From TrEMBL:
It comes from Streptomyces coffeae. It comes from the Bacteria. Residues 15-139 form the Mycothiol-dependent maleylpyruvate isomerase metal-binding domain. InterPro entries: CHP03086, DinB/YfiT-like, Maleyloyr_isom, MDMPI_metal-binding. This is TIGR03086 family protein.
Length: 202
């Protein structure tokens, strides 16, 4: 966090866990590493951070009607100015505050992905899925341990099975064949990511 600001919190555990994973991945990355390639083909770590932050702002904007990201998250710049926390924290705070105002049993909320409306439970999981998978992208690209846990991967995989198909070829690649492995590997393969990805494969 910067300027002594504290992170905003929400009552959605899956979103809290995903935000923690993203913060963990971004923390203490050396300046030189921001240009490293990632599992997101053609994007470096800085681009994935900008994309992930923009997506969180987009979810917040759909819920509150407030302005969304000032740039297209799917066309992120290759670098950013200032500290990474200055990019990430306002976005996570906006998303957390927006979801904190949503009742768990709300039948329908607006979201920035097809079909543009879904239940609050699924919408919060979709927002969490975006943060968590990009946390993994950043971490493995920077040579860090995966920030994804089995406890987080399980509900995210259940949500992904309900919402990913319309996004194949745009936000997610084709599903990879299932193999023996843990819940984190199953989630990554469903999202078109190789659990054993390394920068050497880029």
């Amino acid at each position: 966090m910067t300027n002594g600001a504290e992170a905003a919190h929400t009552d959605w555990p899956v979103l809290e866990a995903a935000h923690r994973a993203l913060r963990s991945a971004v923390r203490e990355i050396p300046i030189a590493d921001w240009a490293k390639p990632t599992p997101c083909d053609g994007w470096n770590i800085a681009q994935v951070l900008l994309h992930a932050a923009g997506d969180q702002q987009a979810y917040a904007a759909f819920l509150t009607g407030e302005p969304g990201p000032a740039y297209n998250p799917f066309e992120p710049a290759t670098a950013f100015e200032g500290a990474p926390e200055d990019v990430l924290e306002p976005a996570l705070s906006s998303a957390a505050k927006a979801w904190a105002g949503v009742q768990r049993n709300t039948a329908e909320v607006p979201v920035p992905i097809p079909p543009q409306k879904m239940s609050a439970e699924l919408g919060a999981a979709a927002c969490a899925l975006d943060a968590a998978v990009h946390a993994w992208d950043i971490a493995v690209a920077a040579g860090q341990p995966s920030p994804l846990t089995a406890d987080l991967a399980r509900p995210l995989l259940a949500a992904a099975r309900q919402l990913v198909e319309p996004l194949r070829g745009f936000a997610f690649g084709p599903e990879l064949p299932a193999e023996e492995g843990d819940d984190v590997a199953a989630l990554l393969r469903y999202l078109g990511r190789r659990p054993d990805w390394s920068p050497a494969q880029s």
